[in-house]
Automatic annotation (TrEMBL):
The keyword Protein biosynthesis does not apply. Signal peptide: none annotated. Keywords: Cell junction, Coiled coil, Phosphoprotein, Repeat. GO terms for cellular component: anchoring junction; cytoskeleton. It comes from the Eukaryota. This is Uncharacterized protein. Residues 261-285, 611-648 are annotated as: Disordered.
Length: 648
């Protein structure tokens, strides 16, 4: 009965997807824009994919990504909607209105506590906006529905309305930039978003505007950062926001305002005076004279310049007062200097005596046993076989987990899921703080390395290593065998087989033994056709974003670009802040990259025009996301397994 039902396939001309504000986008229009490929439609017609699967993979172009939903106060952790911030004086009215306009132009006003989205009219009823904002926001909302030309009666896009003077240029650029940062330019006639390149081809953007949106300048910096008083693009402002792990909502943190810092000398003098008022232990002041310049300096300054050694410095500081008191003093001074220098972008002050003391303690406590050292050396020697385990924050020179990189907005959600899938499929989730122990999904969830939503998405990826249970035979199957029986999606399963192959061989559960392709064929884990595909690395899908250029690359390319951390032995990807990424194109042209421009950069840099894999967010097609699967597509005891043919 189920098979008969699935055999009835709707005509592609009759398939529509829900878009922003209750609008509907046709499958045919999405194909014309290159968002959905002919191959994807064929998979839909053969029952390999459902409409829900396709919706999930292209949601970026239908409803857009999350805009800035509200403000979170750094000191208290309280979340506020934009209107609440205006009413309480947290944001100026103009700044708040710009953020609300961006929400409206992207598709809906967001209630920051529940994450629900509303039209401007409904938001007004729920008091998410006030009477003074309604008209402005309704005009901004027409960036989604289109502007009616009073002369011709035609529906105009946002840029077309700007060109005819119905929208001011400054407001129009601000709203266009917000659309780009959250998924693409809205084509109101097609009821969906399109990449910048497609918008330019369709005439929705002019060449001049295309250039402005791909190379941000002062003209596109229409949003205000209340923390730094800077004018920023919407993407730049989003890069300073935080993503809430449970809801996926994005909040702009409001930092505590501090008084203007004084000079270093005045801060030091003030701290010394305060300390003297609190203590009478000091009986003398030791002064060191620089033999070259004759300049007088404190013990601390002499130690920092290398004129005296640590033991001498400690002895002289004890003569000035108690060692514990002096340590407290240095800590107090350095705390002030560090906070101010960090905010100004300069390096913090040099190491104090107390810092040296702390480092000595760290070295004492971190001495490894012979067994730990042996395991670490083994890990270093085998690093070339492992998956990408962590991210190196180039700006901060820190090795961090994938989850932490996601919080810092160094990696996008789809790439993070691909990297974590690869870890789960080859042994377990990696904790950079304890690199010698691979964690199960539940263990990683327990220590906060991943969130609950991610754990659900990785559940099937973990089975690629631990084995799939065949409920009919009660046997434990390898990933290749599970693919043959239709226990997992073909594309996602193939992607994980690729990861296993290039990191040491296909996995045989339950002990995780690695085998070659020839052995896998002989054992019946994969057929010769799959073995040939896995051995052709050039055919691997581009599913990960290069964290230095924002171009889409394959997992083997990512491994090629990775580095091995000499301390942990982990294979890591180096990541630049999104706004600092760029790629050199043919002819010497440099494109400044950003998460929103990945599709454009990829299409310019590569002849590959496959979609939705060819775009950043829409490469979710076939990923292990149980939440996005429709009921009829799940393998359950009362539904027969569906055999799925390869994409190529």
């Amino acid at each position: 009965m189920e098979v008969a039902t699935r055999a009835k396939v709707k005509d592609r001309n009759d398939i529509f997807f829900e878009a922003a504000l209750g609008r509907r986008a046709s499958l045919v229009n999405l194909m014309k824009a290159g968002i959905v490929s002919e191959e994807t439609v064929s998979a839909l017609e053969h029952g390999v994919l459902t409409e829900e699967d396709i919706f999930t993979s292209i949601s970026q172009y239908l409803v857009g990504e999350q805009p800035i939903a509200g403000i979170i106060v750094e000191a208290t952790g309280q979340k506020f909607g934009i209107l609440e911030c205006i009413q309480q004086g947290i944001l100026k009215r103009g700044t708040g209105l710009e953020l609300l306009e961006a929400q409206a132009a992207i598709g809906s006003i967001i209630e920051p506590h529940s994450g629900n989205r509303y039209s401007v009219a409904d938001a007004m009823k729920l008091r998410l906006i006030d009477d003074t904002q309604k008209d402005t926001l309704e005009r901004a909302q027409r960036a989604i529905t289109g502007y009616r030309d009073p002369v011709t009666g035609n529906t105009l896009s946002l840029f077309e309305a700007m060109s005819k003077g119905y929208v001011t240029e400054s407001r129009g650029i601000r709203l266009l930039e917000a659309q780009v940062a959250t998924g693409g330019i809205v084509d109101p006639k097609a009821s969906h978003r399109v990449p910048l390149s497609v918008a330019y081809q369709r005439g929705i953007l002019s060449k001049k505007m295309f250039g402005k949106l791909t190379d941000s300048s002062d003209d596109t910096k229409g949003f205000f950062d209340p923390n730094t008083n800077e004018n920023l693009t919407y993407l730049e402002l989003m890069s300073r926001c935080r993503t809430e792990s449970e809801t996926g909502l994005i909040f702009l943190p409001l930092l505590e305002k501090k008084k203007k810092p004084r000079s270093s000398s005045s801060r030091l003098d003030s701290s010394l005076k305060k300390k003297k008022r609190r203590s009478t232990q000091r009986s003398r002041k030791v002064v060191i004279v620089d033999p070259d310049s004759g300049a007088e300096m404190t013990v601390k300054e002499a130690y920092q310049k290398g004129l005296i050694d640590r033991a001498t410095a400690k002895q002289l500081m004890q003569q000035e007062g108690e060692w514990t008191e002096e340590t407290e003093l240095v800590r107090e001074v350095e705390t002030v200097e560090t906070s101010s220098s960090t905010s100004s972008g300069h390096q913090a002050s040099s190491m104090s005596m107390s810092s040296v003391e702390q480092i000595d303690d760290v070295f004492d406590k971190s001495r490894m046993s012979a067994a730990d050292l042996s395991a670490r050396l083994l890990q270093l020697s085998n690093a070339h076989l492992g998956p990408i385990a962590a991210i190196i924050d180039v700006e901060k020179q820190e090795t961090i987990s994938i989850a932490e990189a996601l919080k810092r907005r160094l990696v996008d959600g789809t790439s993070a899921q691909r990297l974590l899938e690869a870890q789960a499929a080859t042994g377990g989730i990696v904790n950079p703080m304890d690199p010698m122990r691979l964690l199960s999904i539940n263990e990683a969830l327990a220590i906060g390395l991943i969130d609950r939503v991610t754990s659900r998405r990785l559940a099937n990826a973990e089975k690629a290593f631990r084995g799939f249970s065949d409920r009919r035979t009660n046997q434990m199957l390898s990933l290749g065998e599970a693919l043959k029986k239709g226990l997992c999606y073909y594309e996602a399963g193939t992607r994980l087989l690729e990861v296993q192959y290039i990191t040491g061989g296909l996995v045989v559960p339950p002990d995780g033994k690695r085998i070659s392709l020839d052995t896998a064929v002989a054992l019946g884990c994969v057929d010769q056709r799959m073995a040939d595909r896995l051995s052709d690395i050039q055919r691997y899908a581009k599913s990960v974003v290069d964290l230095k250029t924002n171009l889409l690359i394959s997992y083997p390319d990512a491994l090629e670009k990775s580095v091995v951390d000499k301390y942990t032995g982990l294979r890591c990807l180096e990541a630049l802040p999104r706004l600092n990424r760029s790629v050199k194109m043919a002819g010497g042209i440099t494109i400044q990259a950003s998460s929103a421009y990945t599709s454009l950069a990829s299409s310019l840099a590569s002849s590959r025009a496959e979609s939705p894999i060819g775009s950043l967010r829409s490469s979710r097609r076939g990923s292990f996301d149980e939440d996005s699967f429709s009921g009829s597509f799940l393998n359950t005891p009362d539904r027969p397994y569906i055999n799925r043919s390869p994409r190529k």
